[in-house]
Amino acid sequence: MKSVRTVTLNTGAAMPQIGFGVFQIPPDEVVEPVRTAIDAGYRLIDTAAAYRNEKGVGRAIAECGVPREELFVTTKLWNSDQGYDSALRAFEGSLGRLGLDYVDLYLIHWPVPAKDAYVDTWRALETVQGDGRARAIGVSNFAVPHLRRLLDETDMVPAVNQVEMHPLFPQDELRAFHAEHGIVTEAWGPIGQGKGLLDDAEVQKVAAEVGRSPAQVVLRWHVQRGDVAIPKSVHAERIRQNLAVFDFELTDDHMAQLRTLDQGRRLGPDPETFNLGA
């Protein structure tokens, strides 16, 4: 496997293009998969307060034997903690559970329009970056109107926007906005959340032509578009396979084939209406 490529954030930091996501891995089961991922070569680990497994992630990081500065650790602020003061308290809680002095990236998990607090929340994130406890700050599940408001009303441009993205929902308009403003696009659910993408005939055809698994083909699609992806698995062999996407390339024809899969529909919640925890 070739070494993992990185993208450069607007802070100058290097962020690996493939990371390990721990969404829906139970707190008492998360340590071993994270250890396996780090042993396999993952250096980006993505968790969130809402996943309730930050403590286990922190334990795996502490015990992995890899120097802290070689890891890129992301966590996220949950919706019920939005607001300036509550966001600062929530950040301290996440750092404590992770057992870390700093995180490499801290994200607002959702915009939560009904709460209308993400601008003040963003100002709290600006504070923790200014203090050096978050090396970079960003958002998750923000649409263009939410991003425009942050750009208009605050001082710092998000380094990253982590959103649902895969060949069925390629987010072209949002990615163009990101490119215009120097925001890195990061995909959650990058291989379709087990909802049929990997069984699609076009994906299967490309996989057969390049001699790779359907998941590897889709993750390579993300890499060649210049984005970051955080696949999740608890199976050691799949964890290793999902990172092994830097030693082959998809042709322009393959990329065009996958482009035809765009259905313009989400598999997960809509950020404009998702208000859980408001």
Specify the CATH architecture of the domain at 6-191 and 227-234: Alpha-Beta Barrel
Percent of residues in helices: 25-40%
H-E order: EEEHEHEHEHEHEHEHHEHH
CATH class categorisation of the domain at 6-191 and 227-234: Alpha Beta
What is the beta-strand fraction?
A: 5-15%
Low-confidence stretches: none
Separation, N- and C-terminal Cα atoms: 44 Å
The counted number of beta strands is 10
Count of DSSP H/I helices: 10
- Can you give the mean pLDDT? 97
Computed structural class: alpha/beta
Describe the protein in words.
38% of the residues lie in helices and 13% in strands. The chain has 278 residues and is an alpha/beta fold. It has a domain at 6-191 and 227-234: TIM Barrel, CATH 3.20.20. The chain has an 8-stranded parallel beta sheet with strand order 3-4-5-6-7-8-9-10. A two-stranded antiparallel ribbon has the order 1-2. α1 packs across α2, α2 (54-63) packs across α3 and α3 crosses α4 (118-130). The longest helix is centred in the first third of the chain and has 15 residues, at 84-98.
